């Protein structure tokens, strides 16, 4: 049975043999998900050239240079929280007493003063957070902000100075087949590096987060890698490792990372506002079925159908109508409802957003001014509005 799993782990019992530890992993379950002060650091020194040498030893040296620099910016995160435990007799008899439970994940340093990004699920409901850097320093950390819909969180390390920040790369320029490294703490093994390629871009509608838009990679990602870095060959952060698709609970070559463009936007919003402010149009939408597309003489995935337009909402003011087919947002093609929701949510309320729609066979350009999503921070099940017809989603 294939299951999604978050890649967050609990400490491995060191009395186990390595083989047993790998099989057990100390992990339950298996899909496994594992004011902005940030100043972009200088790029990795020119030891990493855009053109790779043909000499195998030189290639190996350059990979090691990338890993060495990136490892300094990836941290181990240990969280503790209270949970209901078994009764004092160990068989569920008597009162249930709270006990301390812990878990482990990874994070990426974004500033020398200790701003760290990780997954929401790594620090969710944590009572104590301890962060350990690659050189052995330990810091207490507090949550600056956490956003469950994108599964991202920002931490601030206490009294941190002179840390090595990882620069952001542009995930929009990442190509399928590009070589990447996954860096984190699988099974509590700090500072682990795995190498692979980008298997696919823009994986969506997978039910991992509300705003799926993942980079898929075959670099090994395991429990404990959650919140760690996906790094390009220039030593830049292009993704935050979050989930794997696995039958075993461990890596089977299908891992997913949140793209850096989304990470950067969410981090800035959490630091500025303590929450993520998302754009909102006030429409119900649904994917074009093959029958719909055929009736409209459109290819499948050529746009998204507008089902209803909310009275008094930004979409109505922009001139959108029920029955319109949205084909582009901000100049980018829209293929499904997930893509449209993500693009609209990424827009800033009050700022112009260009829309291209098909209406009665004619292509129209509209300008909308999104409002703020009414329930920021609330994880809404897609299509929760009871007024929506089956297949419709609210945006």
Task: Give a short overview.
The chain has 395 residues and is an alpha+beta fold.
The class by helix and strand makeup works out as: alpha+beta
**Can you count the beta strands?**
23
CATH class of the largest domain: Mainly Beta
Task: Examine the secondary-structure arrangement and name the CATH architecture of the largest domain.
Answer: Beta Barrel
Question: Which radius of gyration do the C-alpha atoms yield?
Answer: 23 Å
**Overall tally of structural domains:** 2
Estimate the helix proportion, in percent.
10-25%
Question: What do you see in this structure?
Answer:
The chain has 395 residues and is α+β, with helices and mostly antiparallel strands. It has 2 domains: 1-12 and 26-47 and 56-83 and 101-276, Beta Barrel (Thrombin, subunit H); 279-394, PDZ domain (Pdz3 Domain, Roll). Helix content is 16%, strand content 35%. The chain has 7 helices and 23 strands. It has helices spanning 18-24, 56-71, 120-123, 260-273, 290-295, 314-318, 337-346; strands spanning 3-6, 32-33, 74-87, 96-109, 115-118, 128-132, 138-147, 152-157, 179-184, 192-203, 214-217, 229-231, 237-246, 255-259, 279-280, 283-287, 304-309, 325-329, 332-333, 353-359, 362-368, 371-372, 393-394. Strands 16, 17, 18, 19, 20, 21 and 23 form a 7-stranded antiparallel beta sheet that branches. A 6-stranded antiparallel β-barrel has the order 9-10-11-14-13-12. Strand 18 (325-329) and strand 19 form a beta hairpin.
């Amino acid at each position: 049975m294939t299951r999604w799993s978050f890649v967050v782990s609990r400490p491995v019992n060191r009395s186990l043999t390595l083989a047993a530890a790998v099989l057990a992993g100390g992990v339950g379950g298996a899909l496994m998900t594992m004011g902005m002060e940030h100043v972009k650091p200088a790029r990795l020194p020119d030891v990493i050239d855009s053109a790779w040498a043909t000499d195998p030893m030189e290639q190996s040296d350059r990979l090691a240079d990338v890993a060495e620099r990136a490892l300094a910016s990836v941290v181990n995160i240990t969280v503790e929280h209270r949970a209901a435990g078994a009764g004092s007799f160990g068989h569920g008899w008597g009162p249930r007493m709270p006990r301390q439970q812990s878990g482990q994940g990874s994070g990426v340093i974004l500033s020398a003063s200790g701003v760290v990004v990780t997954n929401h699920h790594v620090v969710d409901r944590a009572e104590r957070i301890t962060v350990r850097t690659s050189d052995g320093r330990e810091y207490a950390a507090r949550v600056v902000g956490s956003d469950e819909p994108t599964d991202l969180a920002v931490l601030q390390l206490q009294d941190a100075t002179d840390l090595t920040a990882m620069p952001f790369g542009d995930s929009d320029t990442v190509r399928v087949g590009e070589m990447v490294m996954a860096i984190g703490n699988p099974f509590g093994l700090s500072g682990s590096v795995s190498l692979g390629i980008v298997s696919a871009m823009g994986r969506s509608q997978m039910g991992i987060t509300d705003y799926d838009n993942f980079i898929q990679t075959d670099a090994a990602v395991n429990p404990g890698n959650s919140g760690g870095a996906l790094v390009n060959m220039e030593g830049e952060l292009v993704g935050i490792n979050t989930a794997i698709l696995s039958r075993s609970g461990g890596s089977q070559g299908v891992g997913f990372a949140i793209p850096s463009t989304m990470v950067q936007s969410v981090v800035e919003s959490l630091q500025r506002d303590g929450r993520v402010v998302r754009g909102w149009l006030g429409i119900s939408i649904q994917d074009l079925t093959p029958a719909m597309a055929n009736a409209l003489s459109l290819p499948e995935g050529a746009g998204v159908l507008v089902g209803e337009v909310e009275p008094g909402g930004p979409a109505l003011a922009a001139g959108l109508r029920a029955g319109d087919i949205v084909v582009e947002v901000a100049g980018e093609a829209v293929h499904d409802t997930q893509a449209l929701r993500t693009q609209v949510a990424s827009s800033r309320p009050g700022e112009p957003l260009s829309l291209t729609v098909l209406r009665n066979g004619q292509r129209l350009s509209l300008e909308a001014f999104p409002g703020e999503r009414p329930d920021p921070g609330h994880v809404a099940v897609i299509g929760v509005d009871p007024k929506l017809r089956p297949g419709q989603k609210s945006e």
